[in-house]
Amino acid sequence: MSWEVLTMRSVTSFFNPALARSDLRRHWPIPFLYTAIWLVALPVQLYLRHIAEGASYGTRTVSEVCQGTYSMGVIMAFVFGGVLAMALYSYLMNGRSVGLIHSLPLKRQTLFFTQLLTGFAMLTAGNLLVVLVSLLVCGEPGPLLVWLAVVTLAEIFFLALGTLCAMLTGWLLAVPVLYVGINFLVMAVMQLIHWLAELFIFGYQEDGFGSFTLWCTPVVQLVRRLTDPQGVVAEYVGYPVVSADVSPLENGGWQALGIYAAAAVAILALACMLCIRRRSELSGDVAAFPWMRPVLRYGVGCIGGLALGMILYSVTFGLARSNDIRAYLPGMLLCVVLMTLVCSFGMSMLLGKSLKIFRRTWKGTVLLAALLAAVCVCVRMDVAGVERRVPKADEIESVTAQCRNIQPFTATSGDTETIEAIRAIHRAILEQAEDGDVDLDGTPLIEDGQYIWIRLKYTLTDGSTLERGYNVPVRRASALYTAINRMMSTPLARQELVISGTADADSAPLGGSIYSVDTGDVRNLTAVEAQMLYQAAQQDVAQGRVISDILSDTGYSPLQVDITGNDWDCVLNLDNFTDDAHTLELVNRFLSGGDGESGE
């Protein structure tokens, strides 16, 4: 008598229709809501524009409406890609369901790709329905097919990223946390670094995020690349109307979509490998793989310790020491160490599903707290020399300066006089800080001087930027006072003191007006009179008839002089002219009844 053991053969197909139908029955509300939102956002908007424009409605209008929804498409892909991935792979988060599914004669690859393709088909079917309805409304397939390509490529990436997050954890609530965290991790870390530097480094100003940070933040980068960074928005009527003359896709949009689509392929390959190696008995755990435990424990401890530590400092020591130019180091160390211990031990309890985790984790947690404390000390001591750095003249492409009543102005590398004057201000501020003459006492006035806000932004030859902002006391006869006045005496600064707005030196003024703030009277200027005033202002600037003392009281002029040209206009700031300025003489003459024609 022979016994034969019968086994269920594993199906080798990468797709199982029965499982796909089950997913459709369970999760159809998600694509239904997705499609409903898009039907309102695209076909309905196309119909309303068709009613509003009538005969002028055409391809251009359809392109404008479609392009205006690209950023919305990224947000929709981000939200619904993550939600759908969480729903499709929710069976992995429950011990009973994962045991049942994995007992089926299906390979892990089959389960993985069936869920993935079903989710992608749900979103794509909704997109196709939106395109068909929109086509019935507008009859312009070209822009709609481009829209379909854009939203589909975005959905591929975010669905892939959501799938990867579902593979990394066995706890359903951890999926959205991981998903959002991975999307914004690099930007959040860089923002923490900026905040820490602003607390400890005198004058440090955040100058935005670099290219690497933006590429590691897919939502932000795609929205930036698929909206207009170069003036494509034609008008704003409650919402931006994008001009179809220049498509944002041509300004790097296709490149970004292609890069993220290629990244999606790599992410899916990694997610599939993790799905195959994933242990079913870890369903319900925060970490689906043992190597994830230290990553989560120390990652949450590090980021949470810094972020919550700085928040705790700001509401405790920060409120009591609001006039300090730097954070109080002992207080910051106490807050950061305390929050690091709380976050690290809290994450360890969550990972271990127990309160008894101290013996196993205290060494690593204490080491992490010590490392973060060392980072704070190094930043406070300015080990990297960030606070003391003044760019060399040959490193500067341009520098923008703003100081009290001087509007922001930019000196390029060719204007060596102004650049050297600005560098002298920067050095004088740092020297004054070394002497301890920077602490704020809470009062706007000081003896024989004033507190003055100074902002400097360098654009360097390597493409990077360096921005600093200082609120410092400026006293007469100090080195800083001399340096600021030297800058104010340069031709470029004098021009900014008395002429605000845009002016075209090659285009003659066409007119203007003199407005009295006190009486409300307006004296319109002819082209000749406007030309005379503009030339007089330029002459006064060249001959130094401009107040160049940062601490002088310029007084108040009730007169506002506007000069307009062809596509430009500017305002003459009469407060900043000296009493012997020819510009003031001309203004008084025009107001007294004289004109530019007679010379009276």
UniProtKB/TrEMBL annotation:
The chain crosses the membrane at residues 30-48, 68-92, 112-138, 144-164, 171-197, 257-276, 296-315, 327-352, 364-383. It comes from the Bacteria. Coiled coil: none annotated. Keywords: Membrane, Transmembrane, Transmembrane helix. This is Uncharacterized protein. It comes from Vescimonas coprocola.
